[in-house]
């Protein structure tokens, strides 16, 4: 009896081994090459490509390791190469809540397919905090910087003008050669300030922007919301609590522009000269569109998908001047 069991075992053993080896070989089959990565291309290497002086890439021109890993896994999960890329320009500056604000934005943007984040620091150089943050943020990004001239750093003057323009310049330079070769890529630009909260639905809405699209913004203008008034699918006016005489009575977070429009209006920028407080949006939009042309989104502008939340000014009254903590911690 025992010897029969043994002989059976030895007859089966080679077959079992063969099956195990075959399974092993199958799982070790090399994954298909990831280049070109549909998620990343054609604007691949978000932080790479050092043609514009405002931007500094890693020495080897490749994104950080962690970043690359995350993007690889995503490119397999949702390869949507035909989607227009959403370019989000976020001006930012050093302050106690900066990293918290950027973290909130990254957590949102990371869930949006084909989004390229353009972060522009108001600084003479790129800060380590933001560089480190972006390297680990897990989404395609470009890190620029431009300092606001001192004379413009006064209350009552518009903010982030130079930073938004740096983002525009980068975008134009990046795509100019594609346009020349009739290989323009579809894209949508919007200005994503770091003190807002964005619903994921907003990105679905703006993705289909043909020229310039608009939608309501919550908690802005001294009201629960502001919105474009829509009649028969066309914008006919503005529901706003503040300076209703503005040609485009809309917040920076309330519109998106197609890349095509940005490229075919190369001179359209945010202006310092002659710009009154609160007129940044109007001054910019005037250069590229008309009210009649605007495309209402968010259910004919009846849904709030973005909020000007702002973060409360933090209380640092008890920060010690002496006897600091023994370790240096980035906040
Ligand atoms: C917006 O309004 C127009 C005209 O009334 C209508 O045809 C269209 O279906 C509406 N769009 C949405 C998303 O409700």
UniProtKB/TrEMBL annotation:
Pathway: Protein modification; protein glycosylation. It is a single-pass type II membrane protein. GO terms for molecular function: galactosylgalactosylxylosylprotein 3-beta-glucuronosyltransferase activity; metal ion binding. It comes from the Eukaryota. Glycans are attached at residue 300. GO terms for cellular component: Golgi membrane. Pfam families: Glyco_transf_43 (PF03360). Belongs to the glycosyltransferase 43 family. This is Galactosylgalactosylxylosylprotein 3-beta-glucuronosyltransferase. It comes from Erinaceus europaeus.
């Amino acid at each position: 009896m025992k010897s029969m069991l043994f002989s059976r075992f030895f007859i089966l053993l080679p077959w079992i081994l063969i099956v195990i080896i075959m399974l092993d070989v199958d799982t070790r089959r090399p994954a298909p090459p990831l280049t070109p990565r549909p998620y990343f291309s054609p604007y691949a290497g978000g932080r790479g490509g050092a043609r514009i002086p405002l931007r500094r890439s890693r020495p080897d021109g490749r994104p950080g390791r962690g970043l690359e890993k995350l993007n690889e896994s995503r490119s397999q999960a949702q390869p949507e190469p035909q989607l227009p890329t959403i370019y989000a320009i976020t001006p930012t500056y050093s302050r106690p809540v900066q990293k918290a604000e950027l973290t909130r934005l990254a957590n949102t943007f990371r869930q949006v397919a084909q989004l390229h984040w353009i972060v522009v620091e108001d600084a003479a150089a790129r800060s380590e905090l933001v560089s480190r943050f972006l390297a680990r943020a897990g989404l395609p990004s470009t890190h620029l910087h431009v300092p606001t001239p001192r004379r413009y750093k006064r209350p009552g003057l518009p903010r982030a003008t130079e930073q938004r323009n740096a983002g525009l310049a980068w975008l134009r330079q990046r795509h100019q050669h594609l346009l020349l070769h009739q290989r323009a890529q579809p894209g949508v630009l919007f200005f994503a300030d770091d003190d807002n909260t964005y619903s994921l639905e907003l990105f679905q809405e703006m993705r289909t922007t043909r020229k310039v699209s608009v939608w309501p913004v919550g908690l802005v203008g001294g009201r629960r919301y502001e919105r474009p008034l829509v009649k028969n699918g066309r914008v006919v006016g503005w529901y706003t609590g503040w300076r209703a005489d503005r040609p485009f009575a809309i917040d920076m977070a309330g519109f998106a522009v197609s890349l095509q429009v940005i490229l075919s209006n190369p001179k359209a920028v945010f202006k310092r000269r002659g710009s009154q407080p609160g007129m940044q949006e109007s001054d910019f939009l005037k250069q590229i569109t008309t009210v009649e042309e605007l495309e209402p989104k968010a259910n004919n502008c009846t849904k709030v998908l973005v909020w000007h939340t702002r973060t409360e000014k933090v209380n640092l009254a008890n920060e010690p001047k002496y006897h600091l903590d023994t370790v240096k911690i980035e906040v």
